[in-house]
Each structure stands twice: as C-alpha cells, then as structure tokens.
Model the fold of this input.
Amino acid sequence: MSMIGYYLRADENTVSQVRDGGANDLLFGDEAGEKLISIDKTWHAIHYILTGCAWDIPDGNISGQLVLGGEPVNDEDMGYGPARLIPAETVKSLNEALAVWDEPRFRENFHIQDMTDNEIYPIMSGEDEADFFEYVWEYFDELKKFVKEAAENEESIITFLA
Done:
C-alpha cells in the first residue's frame, strides 16, 4: 500500500466542514477540484530535505510544518491518521520560508545515502539518485507554487496521507 501525500487549499467554510466530519467525502469529492493536489510518495523525502530530520520538526524551522506540521482537524482516519490543518497565518510564513528553496539549494540538501540510511520513504537501496532527485524536485516545486497560491488567497492548508 502506498502512502500518498495530499494538500487542500481551504477557506474557513471548508475547514469547518472538515472539522464537522466527512473529510474523506469532501477531500476526494468533485468539490475539491484544483484545490487538491497530490505530491505522490515524495512527502517524507521533502520533509527530510527541508529539515534534516526523519520525523521531527526542529524548533524554529517553519519549513518543517509543510509535511508533518499542523494540528489534527478531526478524528477521522484518512488512511494514515487524521487530516492536519496548517492555518492561514502559518501558510503565509511557510510561503516566505519556501521562497528561498530553489533547485540548487534543494539539490545541496539532497543526500540519497543519508535518506537511505534514515529509511526515508519511499527510497529503496540502489535507487537512482538523479531520477529520484527529479521525482522529488518536481513535486516540491509544484507544492511551493501551491503554498504560494494559498498564501496569496489567505487560505489554510489541510494535509493528509492516504
């Protein structure tokens, strides 16, 4: 079974609907449309590249909020736990922090052997470094644009693994 990372740009009404339950139907229904994106299996590698940590969010590292941050929205299990809310104020700060992450900086922090040693999902021993970098970078770049749009629209982000 795959662990796919999802992100939804959410206004206050959408956040309230998810809090009230039925997140699965709302998040995967037609209503989500272009406000819902998938970063496929890259979520753990992105977190590791941004933080240098497998599961922790280092103090003062706002970028760590992107993947493993936020607070549970409700108790509904989305596949690998509940959906998590990154509030609009945090989204703005996150957008500013992510703006400095261009491809060279991302590549500088991309260490496939460290990721393999730390069992970062979905890396497997013998993974082609160039191919895996491109795979992760493409989704990260899309996610940066997504966060920027959410910040510009003063939206929160709901994230979950399914």
